[in-house]
Write a structure and sequence with these properties.
Blueprint (H helix, E strand, L loop, with lengths): L1 H4 L7 H24 L2 H9 L16
Length: 63
């Protein structure tokens, strides 16, 4: 199909297949990572934006 749009694209079949395989591997990797995460890590990361550090003031101006 790409060769109908761009006639010089005859040699790009390898890159089209490679991009499909890379996308599939990244997608499967993310799914595996999601299912193997520890609950404690997920809880820690989900509460991270809500925690205030001791040396940080609530007004970000420092006054």
């Amino acid at each position: 199909m790409l060769s109908r749009i761009y006639p010089g694209a005859d040699g790009f079949q390898f890159f089209q297949g490679l991009s499909l395989v890379l996308f599939f591997l990244v997608f499967v990797g993310v799914i595996v990572m999601l299912f193997t995460m520890r609950k404690s890590y997920v809880d820690k990361m989900s509460n991270m934006p809500l925690e205030l550090e001791d040396d940080q003031s609530t007004n970000h101006g420092g006054h």
